[in-house]
TrEMBL record, chain A:
Biased composition (Low complexity): 325-340
Chain segments carrying region Disordered: 31-60, 95-119, 324-346
Gene Ontology biological-process entries: exonucleolytic trimming to generate mature 3'-end of 5.8S rRNA from tricistronic rRNA transcript (SSU-rRNA, 5.8S rRNA, LSU-rRNA); nuclear mRNA surveillance; nuclear polyadenylation-dependent rRNA catabolic process; rRNA catabolic process; TRAMP-dependent tRNA surveillance pathway; U1 snRNA 3'-end processing; U4 snRNA 3'-end processing; U5 snRNA 3'-end processing
InterPro entries named in the record: Exosome_comp_Rrp42_subfam, PNPase/RNase_PH_dom_sf, Ribosomal_Su5_D2-typ_SF
Main location: cytoplasm
Keywords: Cytoplasm, Exosome
Protein name: Ribosomal RNA-processing protein 42
One Gene Ontology term of the molecular function aspect: mRNA 3'-UTR AU-rich region binding
One GO CC term on file: nucleolus
Compartments reported by the entry: Cytoplasm; Nucleus, Nucleolus
Family per similarity comment: Belongs to the RNase PH family.
Species of origin: Penicillium chermesinum
TrEMBL record, chain B:
Protein name: Exoribonuclease phosphorolytic domain-containing protein
Any one Gene Ontology molecular-function term assigned to this protein's record: RNA binding
GO biological process: nuclear mRNA surveillance; poly(A)-dependent snoRNA 3'-end processing; rRNA catabolic process; U4 snRNA 3'-end processing
Highest taxon of source: Eukaryota
UniProt similarity note: Belongs to the RNase PH family.
InterPro entries in the record: ExoRNase_PH_dom1 (IPR001247), ExoRNase_PH_dom2_sf (IPR036345), PNPase/RNase_PH_dom_sf (IPR027408), Ribosomal_Su5_D2-typ_SF (IPR020568), RNase_PH (IPR050080)
Organism whose genome encodes this protein: Penicillium chermesinum
Pfam families assigned: RNase_PH
Automatic annotation (TrEMBL), chain C:
GO-annotated biological processes: nuclear mRNA surveillance; poly(A)-dependent snoRNA 3'-end processing; rRNA catabolic process; rRNA processing; U4 snRNA 3'-end processing
GO MF term list: RNA binding
Superkingdom of this protein's organism: Eukaryota
An annotated GO cellular component: nucleolus
Keywords assigned: Cytoplasm, Exosome, Nucleus, RNA-binding, rRNA processing
Protein name per its UniProtKB record: Exosome complex component MTR3
Compartments, record wording: Cytoplasm; Nucleus
Family: Belongs to the RNase PH family.
Keyword Cytoplasm: yes
Organism: Penicillium chermesinum
Region feature Disordered, mapped onto this chain: 1-38
InterPro entries assigned to the protein according to its UniProt record, in alphabetical order: ExoRNase_PH_dom1 (IPR001247), PNPase/RNase_PH_dom_sf (IPR027408), Ribosomal_Su5_D2-typ_SF (IPR020568), RNase_PH (IPR050080)
Automatic annotation (TrEMBL), chain D:
GO MF term (any one): RNA binding
Ranges of residues in domain Exosome complex component N-terminal: 8-45
Pfam families the UniProt entry points to: ECR1_N, EXOSC1
GO BP term, pick one: RNA processing
The Exosome complex component CSL4 C-terminal domain, residue ranges: 83-186
Protein name: Exosome complex subunit Csl4
Keyword RNA-binding carried by entry: no
Localization terms from the record: Nucleus, Nucleolus
Major place of residence: nucleus
Cellular component terms (Gene Ontology): cytoplasm; nuclear exosome (RNase complex); nucleolus
Keywords linked to the UniProt accession: Cytoplasm, Exosome
Keyword Cytoplasm: yes
Length: 387, 269, 315, 239
């Protein structure tokens, strides 16, 4: 199994020789556009099959499989839970005494408490990857990354439109002041990941959440909640646009997280395992549709440690120990420490060092966010999936 | 008060989900579901659904290979993972596996270790990964069936299909069976509420595929059936075993026919 | 996950009781306000080489915000003043990898970030929780880009950070659970990065450059008349801002002008920039975080230089 | 040229261009410039005369000792571990002797620069070598810190240069001996490989069965000064 020490890196250290890495890097960093090993264009995604609502025992579920056989299944379960405030009694006083410190943007909400706004901890995410423990760095990092954009996507401009989604996912989970839904998102990867599993998991989670239904509430106001037994009238967690609404008003959808790498001056989307192993920089960018319907909104960016930093360096001929056995002692010391001695030699693989230039980050996000860019393409593709 | 089989069955002669005593739930199965593995299957018995993938026979890890060098055959490695969303309530656990999945994987490992022709693959490992997506009773039986299908898909030789089924009694069956007025019926293929209420057992049987001169001899088939797995965690008076075991074996036979249909119907055959 | 090996304290918060009389005096105007300029950073105390048993170590402390310092010396309400980051970092190694580990041509970095149980308002357990593990991964990413790992084959480096006092996520006078976004963790990460870089330099591990952490955020003013008035602030103390829309941490290497770690979250689209500034919100935010990192770099480089000069003088 | 050099450098500080200097340890090259990669004093090693090479710029890992003689500061000076590299001379303690190999754990990597230059100003980071060795050779002191030290192997064929096939490991090393060896390979995941196949390499310190520190008697024998009993060893030539 994989070495847990290196598991936090973008995936396991690739088993490619320095020569292979160098070849791959050169072809991916060609100035006229990269040549990818599988012939895709830089922004093209791998083909996948998707289905939703596959598990009757869950509130929502989805399965996505890549052609290479990596499959992910996401099941969403919701439980009703009592809203526990850190101090219930104090809460009352605070509400009376403080004239609602205007720390909420919309003045309509008078009580700035979890009871109204929802709490990020109500969404729990756990990722199971074969060969990893639950608390290994990779699953923890992945779930924090996806959860962060899920709870963070507050579509505040709910003016006149879906008021139900006004507080984002968090707000949707509020039943009343004392009760809320708790959402468990369990992600199951069916085989060891062949590439960094982030896009797969994110897309699957997206579809599962879209298909998630909550039973229809029959109680009103601050009553203890009870629900309609008829699953047929259950409501979607992410409400569907009513047929009467104009076609332009698109449905509010969960965010997606895209994986972008930069190699040389090129920007490459949805890298496979080999491509990510020569990346200069790896970014995970979470986006969602802007609440105004058009355009995209950036939710979060995270750098991911590129596995290229852990690769084995190639040795240029000029420094090959076996060809200079006759030379003196001090030269050998320099050769054993080649990074001090030489500038990068073309065609010889060096583990990537250093970070990302700011211009590269700008370019990466621009490619995702621009009109007609990759982000829109992905979201449109997902909207094509029948849920 | 929740409905219970032990109270409603004597009145209606129907189970809670409307089945008769010897009726199985809807059986659905598919093989070659995951191209990344050597063999894979998806199996649903009612609301119990399982995905299973097989890797290997492949070179075992260094430590294991040396340990099993004496046996000279392949090592079967089973890993059972019950998804958090599989049950009615979401299962929370602190990493790793729980008692139920460890138990199932132990039974599966010993069953398939002796069932497969492991001697054909010395110093290698056959690893089976079982993911329980939805659990609604007869989990062990369904896991046996899913593993068999995935192993067939992986092309690993075995003497016959290993099929599992559960059987239970419609009451607690704690007193000796009274042959004159016996109001308890055996049940085939239990669902989760029934499992929680009633005593039940799980049986896995295998039937040698007739070869040679017996090939055409249809009647001989039953004579070749062997019980490979028998697991029972609940308490029942021994006199009722007589009625439980045949029902479970009947279920296994039924499932075997269904599974043969699945294998024949798949495109790879 | 429960820690069963130790006798644990109460699971809830460890806040002292707040009495009615104390509460009455607290009104929203007591909320601490930022008295620094938007681009002005808090002072940082950083010293290396304090832990003799480690091969490298550093201690870092943020100056408490001015308003809070005043509040502390002359308390007007019972609401506890906000905290300021204090953390220690130790570096152990390079040392041999454990026998079970595979051959590595590079230095294998392991990062542990742990809150002391008393570091935050809410007691932290002894077992690392997911946010601590998450911080560890962020820190590892930030440092691995700076370290010249191929000079240390077959060896491992353990970086352990203990957070003695964590940054608050919000003003403590606000009703509990009013915010749940953990903005304080981003300041903590920036501090971790700066301190770890100093400790690595102290341990004489080859680095491309010192790497400094910086935070910038887009905040909305208290009582903003109209929405869409997000202002870019550097080194935000979450207690001083009623509403933080988005925040960003970077790990930045000034000599190469490169970012090794970037973590941005929240809605950065509402940033109001100067006229003629055509950058998008998130770009401005990243640039702001880089400026903040430049500021902490000046402290970092002085601290490293000072420790060297001290060593030379005492040798 | 030398005036532009700072006296101490911090990582990421530009020191000079590759046109003027060659990059030594503690530096790295970025876009034709030499940058410091560790914090420490900047040292220029002049090029050997009558060669074409440039002087080498390096950042020292160690603080230079002041004018010789003052021992006050040295004892508390921190030690910075240097990794064993190929050809570096190490001192190691024998932890296990098998038929084909001896396992040792590396205590000290001797600084090459110090070894080559005149010993009076041995400003190596290992100047408390003596104390390390005496404590290590002390049987009570065999702590379980071996996990924290680099492990190495001396294979049977690497013990001595002559009569390799007649080597009996038990007559070469005993557990607890201190051996001076030279690294021949970084080895595999767990072990470095050492050789003692030179006159100046081999056992430098050992205790006899009686527990007394022995002195070298010949290239293959050490003797107990109290009992007078000799024990076979692959002995390093004393300086």
């Amino acid at each position: 199994m994989s070495n847990p020490r290196q598991a936090s890196s973008a995936s396991q250290t690739p088993h490619l020789s320095p020569a292979e890495l160098s070849y791959l890097y050169t072809s991916l960093s060609l100035p006229k556009g990269p040549i990818r090993p599988d012939g895709r264009s830089p922004t093209q995604f791998r083909p996948l099959t998707a289905e939703t609502d596959i598990l009757p025992g869950t509130n929502g579920s989805a399965r996505i499989g890549f052609a290479d056989g990596t499959q992910a299944i996401v099941g969403v379960k919701a439980e009703v839970e009592k809203t526990v405030l850190a101090s219930d009694i104090l809460q009352q006083d605070v509400e009376n005494d403080l004239q609602a410190p205007s720390d909420r943007r919309d003045g309509a909400e008078s009580t700035p408490s979890a009871a109204a706004g929802g709490h990020g901890s109500w969404v729990q995410m756990s990722i199971e990857i074969p060969g990893f423990r639950d608390d290994d760095a990779l699953p923890v990092f992945l779930s924090e990354m996806m959860r962060e954009s899920l709870v963070g996507s507050v579509t505040d401009a709910g003016k006149g439109r879906d008021t139900e989604m006004a507080g984002g996912l968090k707000g949707r989970l509020v039943i009343n002041k004392r009760w809320h839904w708790r959402l468990y998102i369990d992600v199951l990867l069916l085989s060891q990941p062949l590439s960094y599993p982030l896009p797969l998991l994110s897309l699957t989670t997206h579809l599962a959440l879209l298909s998630t239904k909550l039973p229809k509430l029959k109680s009103q106001g601050e009553e203890d909640p009870f629900f309609d037994d008829d699953w047929g009238v259950a409501e979607h967690l992410y409400p569907r646009p009513s047929p009467s609404a104009s076609a332009t008003s698109s449905q509010i959808r969960p965010p997606v997280t895209l994986l972008v790498i930069s190699v040389g001056d090129n920007v490459i989307f949805d890298p496979n395992r080999e491509e990510i192993s020569v990346a200069d920089a790896v970014l995970a960018i979470s986006i969602t549709r802007n609440s105004e319907g058009q355009g995209l909104k950036l939710l979060s960016i995270r750098t991911i440690d590129p596995p290229s930093r852990l690769t084995q360096p190639g040795v240029p001929n000029s420094e090959n120990l076996s060809t200079m056995a006759a030379t003196g002692n001090s030269d050998n010391a320099a050769a054993a420490n080649p990074s001090a001695g030489q500038e990068e030699v073309p065609g010889v693989w060096r583990p990537r060092r250093g970070g990302i230039k700011r211009s590269v980050i700008t370019e990466l996000t621009r490619t995702v966010l621009k009109k007609g860019g990759v982000g829109e393409e992905v979201l449109e593709g997902l909207e094509g999936v029948e849920v | 008060m929740p409905l219970e089989t032990s109270t409603t069955y004597p009145l209606t002669k129907l189970r809670l989900d409307g089945r008769r005593w010897n009726e199985m739930r809807v059986f659905q199965a598919q093989i070659s579901t995951n191209p990344a593995s050597s063999g894979s299957s998806y199996l649903a018995m009612g609301n119990t659904s399982i995905m299973c993938s097989v890797h290997g026979p492949a070179e075992g890890r260094r430590g294991e290979a040396s340990g099993s060098a004496g046996s000279g055959g392949a090592v079967v490695d089973v890993d059972v993972n019950v998804a958090g969303f599989a049950g009615i309530d979401r299962k929370r656990r602190a990493g790793g596996s729980d008692r139920q999945s460890t138990n199932i994987s132990t039974i599966l490992r010993s069953a398939f270790q002796s069932h497969l022709h492991t001697y054909l693959y010395p110093h290698s490992t056959i690893s089976i990964h079982v993911s329980v997506l939805s659990s609604d009773g007869s989990l062990l039986a369904a896991a046996i069936n899913a593993c068999t299908l995935a192993l067939v898909d992986a092309g690993i030789p075995m003497p016959g299909l290993l099929c599992g089924c559960t059987a239970g009694m419609t009451g607690s069956a704690s007193t000796p069976k009274d042959p004159r007025e016996d109001e308890l019926d055996p049940l085939m293929d239990l669902s989760l509420p029934e499992e929680q209420e009633l005593p039940y057992l799980t049986i896995g049987t295998t039937t040698m595929v007739p070869v040679g001169q017996n090939n055409m001899d249809e009647d001989e088939e039953d004579g070749e059936t062997k019980v490979a797995v028998l697991n029972m965690d609940s308490k029942v008076h021994y006199t009722y075993l007589d009625s439980l075991v045949p029902v479970a074996i009947d279920g296994c036979r039924e499932i075997r026919e269904l599974m043969e249909g699945v294998i024949r119907g798949s495109q790879r055959m | 996950m429960n820690d069963r090996r130790r006798v644990n304290g109460p699971p809830g918060g460890t806040r002292p009781p707040v009495f009615q009389s104390g509460l009455q005096s607290s009104n929203p105007s007591d909320r601490p306000r930022r008295q620094r300029q938007p681009a002005e950073l808090r002072k940082i105390f950083l010293k290396t080489g304090l832990i003799p048993s480690a091969s490298g170590s550093a201690y870092l402390e943020f100056e408490p915000s001015a308003s809070l310092a005043a509040n502390r010396s002359n308390p007007k309400s019972m609401i506890p003043p906000s905290s300021a980051l204090k953390l220690t970092c130790t570096v152990h190694g390079p040392k041999p990898l454990p026998r079970s580990a595979a051959y590595s041509p590079n230095l294998v970095l392991t990062t542990h970030v742990k809150y002391a149980p008393f570091a935050a308002r809410r007691r932290k357990g002894h077992v690392r929780d997911s946010s601590e593990r998450d911080l560890g991964v962020h820190l590892e990413t930030a440092l691995r880009g700076a370290i010249i790992a191929e000079r240390w084959p077959k060896s491992g480096l353990d970086i352990t950070i203990t957070i003695l006092e964590a940054e608050d996520d919000r003003w403590w006078g606000e009703p509990p659970d009013s915010h749940d976004a953990s903005w304080g963790i981003m300041n903590v990460l920036a501090g971790c990065i700066t301190a770890a870089s100093a400790a690595i330099a102290d341990a004489r591990i080859d680095c491309l450059d010192l790497v400094a952490g910086g935070v910038a955020a887009i905040t909305e003013d208290v009582g903003a008349s109209h929405s869409g008035s997000g202002r870019l602030m550097l080194d935000t103390d979450p207690a001083e801002h009623a509403s933080i829309l988005s925040a960003c941490v970077v790990a930045y290497m000034p000599a190469r002008d490169e970012i090794t770690e970037l973590w941005l979250k929240g809605d950065s689209s509402k940033a109001v920039l100067d006229d003629g500034d055509s950058r998008q919100g998130h770009d401005a935010l990243i640039d702001g975080a880089v400026d903040a990192a430049r500021g902490s770099y000046s402290v970092l480089s002085e601290a490293v230089k000072e420790s060297i000069l001290n060593a030379v003088a005492h040798a | 040229m030398a005036t532009s050099l700072p006296s101490v450098a911090i990582p990421g500080q530009r020191l000079g261009s590759v046109a003027a200097y060659a990059a030594g340890p503690g530096t790295h090259i970025q876009q034709a410039n030499i940058y410091a990669s560790i914090a420490g004093p900047v040292v220029v090693d002049p090029a050997p005369p009558k060669t074409q090479s440039k002087s080498t710029l390096r950042v020292s890992r160690v603080i230079p000792a002041p004018s010789r003689g003052t021992l006050s500061g040295t004892s508390q000076k921190p030690r910075y571990n240097t990794l064993p590299a190929i050809d570096s001379i190490v001192l190691a303690r024998v932890t296990r002797v098998q038929k084909r190999q001896a396992t040792v754990s590396i205590l000290v990597v001797l600084d090459e620069s110090a070894a080559n230059s005149d010993p009076s100003k041995s400003a190596s980071d290992n100047d408390n070598v003596a104390s390390i060795l005496t404590s290590a050779a002390n049987p009570e002191n065999h702590s379980n810190t071996d996990e924290l030290r680099f492990q190495a192997l001396i294979r049977k064929e690497d013990v001595r240069a002559v009569e390799k096939d007649r080597v009996v490991m038990d007559e070469m090393f005993r557990v607890g001996d201190i051996v001076r060896g030279s690294v021949i390979s970084l080895g595999d995941q767990s072990f470095y490989y050492l050789t003692t196949a030179r006159n100046d390499l081999g056992v430098v310190m050992a205790r006899s069965d009686a527990g007394n520190m022995m002195f070298p008697a010949s290239w293959k024998e050490m003797r107990d000064p109290v009992t007078g009993v000799g024990e076979p060893r692959k002995v390093a030539r004393p300086f």
